[in-house]
Amino acid sequence: MTVLRIPLFPLPLVLFPHANLPLHIFEPRYKQMIRECIDHESEFGIVLIREGGAMKIGCTAAVVELTRQYDDGRMDIQVEGGSAFEIQEVFKEKPYLEARIELLAEDGDPKTAKIPQDLLDLYGQCHMLLFGSDPEAIDRDENESVAFVIADSLPLDLEEKQIILGMRSENERLARLVPMLQQLLPRAEVRHRMRQKAGGNGHARV
User: Fold this and answer.
1) DSSP state at residue 111
2) Phi (first) and psi of residue 137, to 5 degrees
3) Are residues 22 and 94 both part of a single domain?
4) Sign of torsion, CA 69 73 74 75?
5) 49: which strand partners?
6) Strand, coil or helix: 59
7) Distance between CA 57 and CA 73 in Å, rounded?
8) pLDDT at 193 over 70
């Protein structure tokens, strides 16, 4: 069991391990937090925030690139997801929140999980309808969890993404994604027809 104390960044999104995420940092407290993380080469935690508050399961994040620094201290950064965690205790001693977290171990080796063919078929169909192209092949040497890659690349509901993040078995994640993509498919078809009718070709949001 690995327990750490890290800064928290509640956001209306779900970050997955190894996923890349661009962020624009503008609030004073988070400018301070990110600057300290950059200076000390330390991680922070991203947790989904909803009307009822922040979720207990989140993902550590590391700043991999400072893409732009503004004169007023605002920053554009690129972060990469690290490990899923569960919040054990929250501290309010600084302008931003900190938390004692426990990193969540995987149940078995994700790379040995068998990917259901119906999931791959659904993934391909949804990706084509939403983005007009087949998805890139997922390199299992570079991506421990195929489920995380699929969930990150499609516009699933945030609650669904949160469920996938919290699951510790790759086999269970892959199986859970099948009904999620079955529900996404008709919405993707509607968006595809609307985009065709409007003559547009941009990425869809459903």
Assistant:
1) G
2) -60, 140
3) yes
4) positive
5) 54
6) strand
7) 30
8) yes
Looking up tokens 């007023």 gives 72
Phi (first) and psi of residue 146, to 5 degrees: -65, -35
Determine contact, residues 150/113, Cβ cutoff 8 Å.
Answer: no
SS3 category, 96: coil
- Alpha-carbon distance of 109 to 130, in angstroms, equals 31
Structure tokens at 66: 């400072």
**Confidence check: pLDDT of 29 > 50:** yes
The predicted model scores a pTM of 0.91
Which residues lie closer than 8 Å to 200 by C-beta, 6 or more apart?
Answer: none
With cut-offs at 50, 70 and 90, classify the pLDDT of residue 195: confident
* Residues 145, 109, 11, 156, CA torsion sign: positive
- Final residue of a domain: which of 72, 103, 134? 103
Among candidate residues 103, 136, 171, the one where a domain is terminated: 103
Question: Domain span at residue 32?
Answer: 3-103
Q: Which helix (H) or strand (E) holds 41?
A: none
pLDDT digits (tens, 9 = 90+) for 59-112: 999 999 999 999 999 999 999 999 999 999 999 999 999 999 999 999 999 999
204: pLDDT confidence band, cut at 50, 70 and 90? very low
